[in-house]
Amino acid sequence: MKSGLNHKVFKVLIVDEDERDVKLLKAFCEDLGCETIVARDAYETFEQTIQYLPDLILMNVTMRGMDGFETVERLKSSELVGHIPVVVLSACDSPLDRRTGISKGVDDFLVKPFDSVEFTLRVKNLLRLKECRDFLRDHKQVIEEQVATRIKALEWAFERLEKVYRRIRTGYVETVYRLTFASEYKDEDSGAHIKRISLYAKELASALGMSKEYIETIYYASPMHDIGKVGIPDSVLLKRDGLTPEEWEVVKTHPVIGAKILRDSKSPYLRMAEEIALTHHERWNGSGYPSGLTGEDIPVSGRIMNLVDQYDALRSRRPYKPLLDHESVVDILTTGDARTRPEHFDPHVLDAFRESAAMFREIYEAHRDYGGPRTEG
């Protein structure tokens, strides 16, 4: 029998001790164009099956030693040959034998004496089924190999993209810090302040349960919160005495200036930086600037930065004020004083700050402005 798909010649393993049945079955198979192999018992069956990998097995139920049903069960349990269809040959067609055979994995039954027409139809059908199974299995293997190749190619591409991304991010971070240093150059703030701001914002975003992507973005975006100070005149920004109401109004323009500097970027870092620059002086109760936003109208990044900026400003020494210790600042932010009230802050952000206040202290101690790390006296 020639295959309609790939014109292969099928191999049939005949398992029987009766020479007359073997000759008859060989003749039937050869009339179909099949090659035949013969085994006499279970041992030879296993040996011939593994050696030749036949397309079909015709197995007599009655054999010396292991019977046909048990032999089928062993064959079907093998990953290598379990897919080969098996036809059981029996002298009686009992329901018990059929149930037993089906439970062991038998694919079909033929009852002696064999009818040549029935034999031909059953064998042809099973060989076609085997051919389709082989095709699907081979096709599946080809697809799996192609998928594995594609996955390797994608992994290689992702590795390359990750390297490019790291280079871009490194360049971006350097640019951010240089821009921030430029904006802070005229002010009292330092590189340590910039580092602290990033770490505070990251800690607070983590305490709020924000996504990994959000936490990374606010870490890199937060140092640019005061970039708009480049637009404030030195006579106002560096003034040692108190500001006049007019001068204070000038200072209050720096969020809008910063947002204009950063606007219309495709970078997620710069988009968040624009958001922070514009809203980090807004207050939860609406008493902030420049727009007097209230509650959830203020972006989360602005709410985070409002508290972060306040904490670091209170901790830092200025010509017009001494630095305050951690406990004093926590008390001011959580219970209030003449200038700072708890209602200035998003309650959830304030709760997250309470939970992570110890980390704020550690960050400040590790990145002090003066003299490096030291304990507070």
Q: What do these coordinates show?
A:
There is one protein chain. The longest helix is centred in the middle third of the chain and has 69 residues, at 116-184. The protein has a 5-stranded parallel sheet, sandwiched between helices. Helix 3 links the parallel strand 3 (56-60) and strand 4. The protein folds into 2 domains: 11-138, 3-Layer(aba) Sandwich (Rossmann fold); 185-366, Hypothetical protein af1432 (Orthogonal Bundle). The protein is rod-shaped, with a radius of gyration of 41 Å. It contains 14 helices and 5 strands. It is an alpha/beta fold and 377 residues long.
The ordered H/E elements are EHEHEHEHEHHHHHHHHHH
Annotated CATH homologous superfamily of the largest domain: Hypothetical protein af1432
Taking strands numbered 1, 2, ... along the chain, how are they ordered across the largest sheet? 2-1-3-4-5
CATH topology of the largest domain: Hypothetical protein af1432
CATH class of the largest domain: Mainly Alpha
- Tell me which CATH architecture of the largest domain applies here: Orthogonal Bundle
Q: Structural class of the secondary structure composition?
A: alpha/beta
Helix tally?
14
Rg, rounded, reads: 41 Å
* Unreliable spans: 1-6, 371-377
Helical content stands at 55-70%
Tell me the total number of β-strands.
5
What count of structural domains?
A: 2
- Average residue pLDDT: 85
Strand content: 5-15%
- How widely separated are the two ends? 97 Å
